[in-house]
Amino acid sequence: MAEAMLTKRFALAGIMVPGRHGKLIGEAGVTIRVVGDIAVAHVSARKGQNAALLLVLARMVGAPVADQPQRVARDTLSITGISPGQWRLVVRGHNSEATLRAAIAELQESAVVTELGDGLFLADISGPRARAALAKGIAIDLHPGAFKVGAAAQTSASHIGLHLALIDDKPTFEMISAASTAGSLWSWLTSSCGEYGCDISV
Amino acid sequence: MSAQPYRLATGGLIDRKRPCHFRFDGREYTGFAGDTLASALLANGVSLVGRSFKYHRPRGLLSSGAEEPNALIELRRGAAREPNTRATTIELFDGLEAQSQNRWPSLGFDLLSLNRWAAPFLGAGFYYKTFMWPASFWEKVYEPLIRRAAGLGRAAGADDPDHYEKSFAHCDILVIGAGPAGLMAALTAGRAGARIILANEDFAAGGQLHGDGGNINGTAAAAWVNGVIAELAAMPHVQIMPRTTIYGVYDGATYGAVERVNDHLLSVPAFEPRQRHWRIHARRAVLASGAGERPLMFANNDLPGIMLASAARTYLQRFAVKPAGRVVIATSCDDGWASVDAALAAGVAIAAIVDTRSEVDEALLSLGRRSGAAIYCGGDVVKAHGGHRVGAITIRNATGSNTRHACDGVWMSGGFSPLIHLTSHLGARPQWDEQLQAFVPGQNLPAGLAVAGAACGDFALGACIAAGQRAGIEAAQACGFSAPAAEPILCPETSAAVGVITLPRTAAGPVFVDFQNDVTAKDIALAAREGYSSPELAKRYTTLGMATDQGKTANINGMALLAAARGKSIAQTGTTVYRPPYTPVSFGALAGHHRSKDFRATRLTPAHHWAQEQGAVFMEAGAWMRAAWFPKAGESDWVESVIRETKATRSSVGLCDVSTLGKIDIQGADAGVFLDRVYCNTFSTLAVGRARYGLMLREDGFVMDDGTTSRLAPAHFLMTTTTSNASKVMQHLEFCHQALWPDLDLHMVSVSEHWAQYSLAGPRSRDVLQRLVDRQHDISNEAFPYMGAREITISGGLPARLYRISFSGELAYELAVPARYGDATVRALMAAGGEFGITPYGLETLNAMRIEKGHVTGSELNGTTTARDLGLGRMMSTKKHYIGRVMEERPALRDERRWQLVGLKPVDRSHRLKAGGHLVGRHEPAVTANDQGYVTSASYSPMLEQWIGLGLLSAGDKRHGEIIRACDLLRQSEVEVEVCNPVFFDPKGERLHG
Predict the structure, then answer these.
(1) Each residue of B17-42: pLDDT tens digit?
(2) CATH 3.50.50.60 residue spans of chain B
(3) To the nearest whole angstrom, how far is the Cα of A158 from the nearest Cα of chain B?
(4) Rounded mean pLDDT of chain B?
(5) Quick check: A160 contacting B, CB < 8 Å?
(6) Which end of chain B is more exposed for a tag (fewer CB within 10 A), N or C?
(7) Which residues contact B796 (CB under 8 A, 6 or more apart)?
(8) What is the CATH number of domain A39-115?
(9) ipTM of predicted complex
(10) Does A195 touch chain B (CB under 8 A)?
């Protein structure tokens, strides 16, 4: 029997240091908030259950969910289309795992669900220079007219795969990537933000 | 400190309130903000700026822009030193340090200039013809000598201290060049609302307007430029990028660009890059790169003080610098005469004007007469005279008599050539325009690219601006914007720049065609005589048009000479096709962030920091950083660590991080059917709670990958793959589902990242686990036998998965936990195993133990082996179909002479066996004809206390006991080995069952 409860270690532990980084003068052009407490599930519609699943997902977030690369959110729960018939559920915050389990219970009939949260790293990147910083590695067009609020895409930066979604028009981008390469991605991200000044928080 | 004796008292786009102190070849000078290094040197009376590539002839400034072939210098010092930068494009800054290159001991006295006396023997092809024999001298003698004698600048030889980065950009319209056509195109399309990127190589917009002045819509040209830039800057959808060179056009309407973000500063501000590489995707592009002036060909036309006429006007009017005091203007077009007014306004005396054309417009002649210059129509320059600077020039008049004129400058114009390099980057050939006497953009331009202004042959200012406006309208409309109708632009027609290419008529000295490569008119003729008469061959034979300037000033004259030598027209002989880059691109910009530890992404396991704390030595396994061994104090090499780690594991318990294995979650009613099709053995019959070793074949019957797959629930499997094939197998499975059997009820997702996984191996592994596993889970030998697989909890409720599988041949388990708990779990396991002396081990020990057991890995699953080759033939089911079955049955794959897996051990136990050695008969010579296989893996075996290996040997299965040789010709070693069963240790597998 175990002697003590085991504790989590986040992907960027020992690497990320909260505070101001890069250029120190003036307002930070980029703000990065690393969200450590996340629970994530991959949701795949069971055969013939796509429509039914969409209804369940829409009920969860109180808004229509489409089988498209779009992100819809309510409170701490977001649903993002990642490929035809497949979505990613992300729950943020202290009760994320419990909230996700409740959501999964609702999905059992119409979907096959696989938990993935431990292998991922999530950061919100915002600020007036967020687009410029992200363009230093992300090839897709992030212009507000091309990548609108709610848009989501699977792309890459610095040769590392990632999912990007636009949460709001501040703009705030949600970036999700693999935990194993979080250190390398972080090195690129902070380097890219450096010239604009960057506030990092958790 | 010098007082800038050649600086004009007024004028120029320089900021006289901001002096810039700089050093060139150790001497201090002063210029102004807004200068280039070239203009500042001229202002200080420095006309000798470099030595030529081959003959080390003294060279001055030929041009004022990116086409400069002569003024290549080393910029900055120490690790930041950058060779071969063009003084004409270096924006002056306070504290700049530069030095000339390719000279010894000094620029003024260069001993290697003796080469010029050997010039008659050093023509095109000299090296090819001369340094043929003996072949052994090629690398050791000839090449080092030639490299020392020739060449350009020196690389820094140390890590570049600056940071570079890359960025992506998207726009509706990319406008290349901010001269009059480019500005007008950007303004027109910008007003229509299109997303514009205006890229300008220069730091100041305006192009040649700053050299030629003029009046547009009643406004002075400079003011017009400022007005357009201000309007564009106010448009949020327009991005103006000065100091940015579009260097290449690529497929998919993509353009490569380099932005010299901070090249104009002494030191790069913190967190900013020196340069930024851009990859720009543009729906449409307007190339408004302008035109380049052509040199005239006459003897000694490379002497310092001889420069292009448009460059002279730029130095006079943009930089307020007087390049000479008394000049001869030599031209073959009207545009050359434009220098007359500019010279007179600056107080430059004009000794003579020579026009190669017999008939010249009377207004120009009248202008010339007013200057007091001697005028020669239908004449030509025979020869320039001088040493470090031109001192006189001999002109032959139309009747053939020569006159010598003293001068300290020659401003020449052989007409203009459109700068069309980018139009050729995807293969379009330039075409000759007889009327323009120039190559113009050919057919099949890159998709979406239009050419406007002087780049398209519209040399007159009015036509140039109108063309820019048209291009802007068309591009905007093509992108779906409503562009306004063209507005009339009022500006006087400037002189036309159509020049007649005049071939040199005499051989009074070397006539340089390509200044940078020291290619003369004689070399071109020689190339044609010796059969290298097509433009591409002549280029390679003579080096015409190579190196940093890519023949911007040389090509057209070279092509004219080549055509003449062949007795054909330029239209018939054609020209070379330009390739990227338009101007040199630094490796730093291409690498961007990806250097040193960021060269490529590395993957770290959840226990990486723990392993670091244990002093692990890491090795790269693909992108993964894996612990190779855990050295202890007193251990001198990895073998000693492996011996300790192996013995500890086989006698008690060892721990290895196997989180890097690929893990694929497979669910659905048809999951079992699917696995039966992708594996050669059967999985649909696997009981829930059990794991099975699986072998996956490629379509061609060779082995693709192996691993264990466990059944967690009736419709839920967890597949593991090798670390190196994780992505490939996932891709393969996705293809099989999506392309081959889309009807299957199947869901797959990679969970490799989600689970941290640790192997506990050794007779005490169960004892350790029992201290972590929650009580309700019985993991006794009976309740959880070999090949068991179960979802459990540990440490008071943490969900985990436990597999009783073994790669080491010991009683062993693999414990998987959610990755965020990986670090805590490995620490808990180590604490729990303390009383048993638990020992962490790395890849080297893993390798030693698996070789002892004859288990195959990537070295044997290398794409050339079949299941039979590896002794796994029995795994291939005969009761079902699976990928690879049909092709595996080919006779060649069942040939008994195929290389089969064997064990190998040196006959002399003290000998070391190395992987890679080839296997030959005991008494056969080690030659290819006798090659019977090779050693795939080798390691020291702590249990056998000798080196052992696995190998692939022809008909190896039947040769156990035979003595052969392992010959490593690369590392010069040879070992006699005995062929044996690949399972060296515990052949009955008794230890597995604990």
Answers:
(1) 999 999 999 999 999 999 999 999 99
(2) 165-291+418-478
(3) 7
(4) 95
(5) yes
(6) N
(7) A1, A2, A4, A5, B774
(8) 3.30.70.1400
(9) 0.96
(10) yes
